[in-house]
Amino acid sequence: MISVESLAAGPLLDLPLAELWFALIFALLGTFLFLDGFDFGAGAIFATLDDESARETVLSAIGPFWDGNEVWLVVFGGALFAAFPRVYAGLFSRHYLLMFGILGALILRGLAPEMYEQRHDERWQRWWGRSFVAGSVLAPFLLGAFAGNWLVGSPRSFTLVGIVVGSTVTVLTVVSGAAFLGLKAGRALPGAVHRIGVGAVVVYLLLVVATLGTLAVTLPAGADALLSMPVLALVAASIALAIAYAVALRRGANLAALVSAAGLTYGLVAVVAVVMYPRIDPATGLVVEEAIVSTLPLNLMSIGAALLLPLVATYFVVLYSAFSGPITAEESY
């Protein structure tokens, strides 16, 4: 029988809970970057479309999903706060400007489509269309800047590493967005969307090289931090996934392309986690074992997460199943 005494005595089932929560934090971040990432990418692609019908198609494709996808950002923040409260406090106090910027961009991205649909006036829709694009581009850029600064332990919000990583994440969302729009909208969108996706994945690989080069100069351990076998394996896997993505997109295998984009997203987040570990707050030197909460709340949280996360995942399975398949001409945002 589980008792308070047993829960306070040691880790649940003798599991390495500190390391598991570290991995879970980054898995949640990767899930948000992928699921909301293709929404962001669709918003960026929206800027390249002149035809009103094509723009409405983009809005219809992401309409059922974008607000639900943002749940994963809340779960990420909640998990970081619950498991590593000192890290949460330090990160959010050092980078509060970035946090406000991310929230502002997310609000703009959510508000703009609603306002866009309220009036069919050219000037009105041009303004809110641009706002939608701005929110869709700024949100991943600022989130990437936050992740880059977190990795190198910079106390400043705007750095070279932040700009490079932010640009990398933004282009990665376009990669995901092109595959998602191909899957949901199909022939309702011009073929240029696929070409944008192929071009974006090439730019993404170039930015990955730029990111690794910047980290080699910025990280205290230098290039040695990037030459470990896990990092090299993740980079090689990313190259293979990028090639698979481009081939799949050209052949119209949009689901395969979207799966490849998911692999690229989780791979990028995994590189950050591997390079950072065992530290979780490089700015202060805190390592995972030092930053984790005490045994009793850690065990209770682990039980709660084991029960609740499958429920959240089930909700998303139901959501995506209910709105599966390509959108029809009758659907609107």
Automatic annotation (TrEMBL):
InterPro entries for this protein: Cyt-d_oxidase_su2 (IPR003317)
Subcellular location, principal: membrane
Pfam families tied to this protein: Cyt_bd_oxida_II
Localisation per UniProt entry: Cell membrane
Keyword annotations from UniProtKB, A to Z: Cell membrane, Membrane, Transmembrane, Transmembrane helix
Transmembrane segments: 20-49, 70-89, 95-112, 132-152, 158-183, 195-219, 225-248, 255-280, 300-323
GO cellular component: plasma membrane
Membrane topology according to the record: Multi-pass membrane protein
Key word Cell membrane present: yes
Highest rank taxon of the organism: Archaea
Protein name: Cytochrome d ubiquinol oxidase subunit II
